Predict the 3D structure of the following.
Amino acid sequence: MTITVPSSILQSAERAFPFGPPVLELESISLRFGGVQALTNISFNVLEHEVRAIIGPNGAGKSSMLNVINGIYVPQEGSITVAGERLSEMTPTHAAHLGIARTFQNIALFRGMSVLDNIMAGRILRTHATFLEVALQLPRARREETENRAVVEEIIEFLEIEHIRKTPVSRLPYGLQKRVELGRALAAEPKILLLDEPMAGMNIEEKQDMCRFILDVNDHYGTTVVLIEHDMGVVMDISDRVVVLDYGKKIGDGTPDEVRSNQDVIDAYLGVAH
Amino acid sequence: MTTGTSGLDTFPKLLLHHSRERGERPAIREKNRGIWRTITWRELGEEAAALAVAASERGLQRGAHVALLGDNRPRLYVAMCAAQWLGAIVVPLYQDATADEIATSIQRAQVTHVFAENQEQVDKLLEILPRCPTVRCIVYDKDRGMRHYKQPQLVSYDALLQEGRELAAQKPDFLQGEVASGKGEDSAFLFFTSGTTGPAKGVVLAYAALIDRARLAAAIGELKDTDVAMAYLPPGWIGQILFGYVQPMVVGYCICCPESPDTMLSDMREMGPTYLLVTPRVLEALLKQVSLRIEETGGFKQWLYRSCMAVGARMSEQRLAGKAVSVGDRVLSLASDLLIRGPLRDMLGMSKVRVAYSASDAIDPDLLMFFRTLGINLKQLYGSTETGFFVAMQRDGVIKPDTVGAPLEGVELKLTPQREILVRSPGLFREYHADSEMTARAKNAEGWFHTGDAGDLDQDGQLRIIDRMAYVGALKDGSPYAPRVIENKLKFLPYIREAVVFGDGRDMVCALIDIEMAAAGRWADRQGVSYIGHADLAAHDEVYALIADCIAKVNAQLASEPLLAQSQIHRFTILGRELSADDGALTRTGKLRRHVIAEQYRALVDAMYSGHAGVRFGAEPDEVKIRDAKVTAPAQTRKVA
Amino acid sequence: MPDIWFFIEVLVGGLLSGIMYSLVALGFVLIYKASSVFNFAQGAMVFFAVLTFVGVMELGLPFWAALPVAIGVMVLVGMATERFVLRPLVSQSEDTLLMATIGLSFVIEGVAQLAWGVDVRNLDLGIRDEPINWVMDKTGMLISQLDITAGIVASVMVASLALLFSRTKVGRGLRAVADDHTAALSIGIPLKHIWMLVWATAGVVALVAGMLWGARSGVQFALVWVALKALPVLIIGGFTSVPGVIVAGLLVGASEKVVEVYIGPKFGGGVEVWFPYVLAVLFLLVRPEGLFGEKIIRRV
């Protein structure tokens, strides 16, 4: 199924945050699981403030790519450079410290907590008060708590989820859970936001909402977005540049128009009926 | 109270009065980002002054029209104050109006300045801007997503306020002068009424008319500046403006803006309003929520609920009938209040409500009594935009559920031989905007206004509304027919959201039913009926059986009333999708637009009259069924004592 | 002595031992929240901890020097457990983890006896197990100094742990880890640090519990079974709830003593041994998620 994004959601050509230097560079990444070659010699970069999509048919290695970027998988070969810092091995914790936040294809929320607590949890790296400061309610602990709450409330307003603030996330419908997960990622005030199929399983209206949120985040906070999506229509509408993977190999890279006219991509992806 | 307020004949004057008299008391509270924030009367006055002076720099002039497009937020009300400060006439529009509807209003009122809440509203305005050359300036409140908009007409509220704050300090005399040159007979508002027939009419109301009616209603309700009201109904409707702007201006009480429409109930619980305006639609929705919750609880709780409500109902009836209540009943009533009615009032956020009025449309007596039984002092209020809203209201101690109460002071009522209600009152509108012909047709030379409502006065002088004149008619056999009474009875049932009945000039009454998805959906879940979406559920035989039961109950009620016995519903069909304002079937306040519906569903209605039960109908996307309903023999011999 | 004073005496005694149950149960809850495993080795840790403490004192160190040493050893044990038992078993099933803790308990018991021998020792904390005089004079109640001290120490410990794991960064991290490992990692929670911290804390809790119990009944192998006392507390309070086990500990302590004194004689005594389990079974029937346990709502 393909949907198109109404033109009113799309940004005009003028950008609030012009593209900067590459904030994320992947060089010759190869990843194997046992004998299975998941990714082969993949290189691409992501510019500051851009919306970069990774697309490809099922099993093309899109999720593996995202998991490499935030350190869940460690590639056998290749290197990752984040904001000029070249890393031989990335861990999820390190990625979070570098300002990389993410969402998951199969929603990974803290199911026992409310929406508010889930998004508050996203602030954990922005919290520094020690046990004693909290116990004695010293100024720093109180100030941090207030600041964190203010940031979280801004996100709640941004995502229009005021009405479910106190609701346990396990009671929410799927589309709203996805939104809360985005909220938790935003709470860390990330430089780079990784979105793993943010629109999977949504109806058209929810997809349009999600598109609007993604573009607004990019536009309002200047956050760099890397997203995986299955739905070609959406990707072409909201991304600045697109990487196309097929069987773990990169077969295309460029603006949506370039990718659309790339014969390899047409054969591998568009030729496949979905 | 009235001493010293006699010269205060416009809202800007009243605003300055309050910022002097009760400057540090709250004027508007708003829940924003999870916290209630307060704007005092002094702050409201200062912000309005700043905005006024900045708007004047941008060419806003006395007598010009300013449109407001947004939900109930403090800044909408500040903009209202600022526009009137300069003697401009405020045109509040419905925030969910389509671009075309907005264009029509703006063109007709020749609006020069617009206040828009957010990007969504600005987008609609920009779309119609080429058609609306009079618009010089669009002020937007929330800047989210507005970064790329470069149209010269656009200015952010924050920027305008900033300009104004600097200018206001330099030009205090200008601001004082502008307030002083306003007079009571000036036009204050131009409302576009949600006409159930024909296009919207532009109703112009003067300060004097609004302030006169508001003062009177405030005196009857014994309102004080410590009262609290919720601002949650559409600002395009006169009712919201009266309860959220005019009466606060007269009395000095505080309004609370909920965070979003979805958080309304919990926000209301937090603020505990004491003065409340509701519409039958809101009450129906609340009642359906309550019924749903009760149905989902266990047997004991359901029994408890029914017993407590029965005790409450008996008490209310005895009280209304002026009978003494026995000691035993009083004890039972107290207990039921502690166990069920009190907690329910809390749940609805109405535990502190002293007075609540239901307006905008006729309310089903059972619905009214339900809330009165809960212990909420809910009363009917009759009036329209043209009549300054306050024409008649039920008074404490003399409430008859099927009337709207006695006319208020200053109101003269007259009935035509066709039973149309004519009103003469200080609250009457000045004119229909730029349409002297229509004004003359509606308001005659002696100042009598034709309301278009049919009604009668009972022996106690209480007014009973039958229906819109246009809809009152007769069945083929000559028995009287008024659709709204029947529809309200249907809508009182939890599974029916909206009903449209037909019968004028016909040999029997038929109905289109719009099911309440939430309730019917949960019913279907419990019954194990699987469905995909509204249309599918609406077409299920089980749902038809459920609705047939509901209609049979209503028919039994109708049969017991001699005047209505012939109006029993003989045949019905369930609509595959909701009736909505967006396709014109309802007005923005949720009233039926019968001619539109009759047109949209003409083939279906014809099929109901000509065809027979179970017929298939091709024009609708899905299969539509038509069913016969069970009709009860009219109870001529037996009458309920 | 009036009956009411006697009742209060029984109740206070019960509450004081109850808070110690809470303390032991808290060790279980922390580990359960962090690693989703019922730590079978908790009893062994209690035994090992207090044995280490006594052993160090026997080497000639004074109380205030022996305490940090014992704490240090327990922190090391906790960290070693994380490094050598849990980390290799990441993403294994809960059954595997349970088996691992059973194995761990044998290792710890073995090491303890190997290092410090098998004799029963006395632990003298300098507080005598005698009634407080002025309370006895005033009211006739017999309330032991040791019990009061133990109660106070346990309360402070429980309160600070509750605070640590509810309001602070570590606490939020722990709750997040308990709900979803992957998500917790993605927001920057260092899973390994949290595990280490939790196991180290569990070790310190074991030490305190062991000392308080050991001072009463001697330091002996039977301390391993203290853990069994925590089981009904866990069931009643809920495996994941800190406030739950605090309340449940007090409830179990107070009720078992009251039942023993007032109803016990009818059964020929010894009721307090089995009463908590009966209570726990009742809870399993009525409220399987425990007093404050999280009721997991599953969407259909």
Q: What stands out?
A: Chains B and C do not touch (no CB pair under 8 Å). Residues 617-622, 635-641 of chain B have pLDDT under 50 and may be disordered. The radius of gyration of chain B is 26 Å. Residues 472-628 of chain B form a domain with the GMP Synthetase; Chain A, domain 3 fold (CATH 3.30.300.30).
